[in-house]
Write a structure and sequence with these properties.
The chain is mainly beta and 78 residues long. Helix content is 0%, strand content 78%. The chain has no helices and six strands. Strands 1-2-4-5-6 form a five-stranded mixed beta barrel. The radius of gyration is 11 Å and the shape is globular. The model has no long low-confidence stretch (mean pLDDT 96).
C-alpha cells in the first residue's frame, strides 16, 4: 500500500509499505494492505512503519488525522 505522512511544513515520508501502526485516540491500531476505508483522529504518540524492504521506521507525532482509501494511506500529522 502507498503511505504519505505530511506535516503542515514538510513531507515526512512517502513510499510503499507493508504495515503501519498508529496511535488512535481510542487506542493503537494497525493498517495492512487492502484495509477497509477509514478516517480516524490520532493522538500524540509513535507511528511505526514496516517498509517494503521490511525495515522498521518510527515517527513521533503530536496528533493528527489518518485517511485510508483504495490502498492509499494519508496521515496529516502535527
Amino acid at each position: 500500500m502507498h503511505l504519505e505522512i505530511k506535516k503542515p511544513d514538510a513531507r515526512l515520508f512517502e513510499d510503499e509499505v507493508i504495515s503501519v501502526q498508529l496511535p488512535g485516540i481510542d487506542g493503537s491500531f494497525g493498517i495492512l494492505d487492502h484495509h477497509a476505508p477509514l478516517i480516524s483522529a490520532l493522538k500524540k504518540g509513535i507511528i511505526k512503519i514496516v517498509d517494503k524492504n521490511k525495515a522498521v521506521q518510527v515517527f513521533n507525532i503530536n496528533g493528527g488525522v489518518v485517511e485510508v482509501l483504495n490502498n492509499n494511506v494519508i496521515i496529516l500529522a502535527e
